[in-house]
């Protein structure tokens, strides 16, 4: 092994040791998969860089700023699609490799927990957390608006209508419970 290679190896070992110590100190005795979170952040950065590159190469103009209506529509569509992907019973087969079923959680939603195995835990947390999922969904919808604006707005309109229908269903159920005393 050459002198430079040995020095690189020593630096890598020291860095790895420092990262392990930092992870242990941060976790304070809890199981916190910082390596998985770092991988998820790197994956998100790569995903965002990829679609940003596609947008640039497409030659489509990027708006100076988002229109207020697009922000509202994206917010509602992101909310609905994030909950659909992370909580709905019908999408549980997508989450099953990374999660365990715990029980029902609200109307038509499930409570699941991330599997503890390394590699599955971070994906399981992402897959069951609508707040975490919304970062990916909002980014995807933004890319869609820039690349395929008509089709994306149509899909977002459908998701917004679904969110409205869900709200009406819950309001109706609450009203029926109140009037019938159930």
Task: Report on this structure.
The chain has 182 residues and is mainly alpha-helical. Helices cover 73% and strands 6% of the residues. It is built from seven helices and two strands; from the N terminus they run ααααββααα. It has helices at 3-27, 34-58, 68-87, 92-95, 121-128, 130-147, 149-180, and strands at 99-104, 110-114. A two-stranded antiparallel sheet has the order 1-2. α3 (68-87) crosses α6 (130-147). The chain is flat, with a radius of gyration of 22 Å. It starts with a helix and ends with a helix.
Can you tag this structure with a few keywords?
182 residues, flat, 2 strands, 7 helices
Share of helical residues: over 70%
Major sheet strand order: 1-2
Largest sheet, in brief, is: 2 strands, antiparallel
Note the total helix count. 7
Task: Label the overall shape.
Answer: flat
Name the poorly predicted regions: none
Mean pLDDT: 91
Secondary-structure content class: mainly alpha
Would you list the SSEs in sequence order as H and E? Answer: HHHHEEHHH
Cα distance spanning the termini: 77 Å
| Rg over C-alpha atoms, rounded to the nearest angstrom | 22 Å
**Strand coverage percent:** 5-15%
Total number of β-strand segments? Answer: 2
């Amino acid at each position: 092994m050459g002198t430079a290679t040995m020095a690189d190896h020593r630096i890598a070992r020291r860095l790895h040791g420092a990262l392990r110590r930092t992870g242990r100190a941060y976790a304070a005795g809890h199981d916190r998969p910082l390596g998985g979170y770092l991988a998820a952040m790197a994956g998100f950065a790569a995903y965002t860089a990829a679609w940003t590159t596609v947008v640039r190469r497409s030659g489509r103009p990027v708006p100076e700023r988002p229109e207020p209506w697009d922000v509202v529509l994206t917010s509602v569509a992101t909310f609905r699609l994030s909950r659909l992907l992370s909580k709905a019973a019908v999408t549980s087969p997508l989450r099953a490799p990374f999660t365990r079923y715990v029980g029902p959680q609200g109307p038509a939603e499930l409570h699941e927990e991330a599997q503890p195995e390394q590699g599955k835990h971070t994906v399981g947390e992402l897959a069951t957390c609508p707040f975490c999922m919304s970062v990916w969904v909002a980014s995807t919808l933004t890319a869609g608006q820039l690349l395929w604006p008509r089709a994306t707005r149509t899909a977002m309109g459908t998701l917004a209508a679904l969110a409205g229908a869900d709200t009406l269903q819950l309001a109706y159920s609450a009203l029926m419970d109140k009037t019938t005393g159930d």
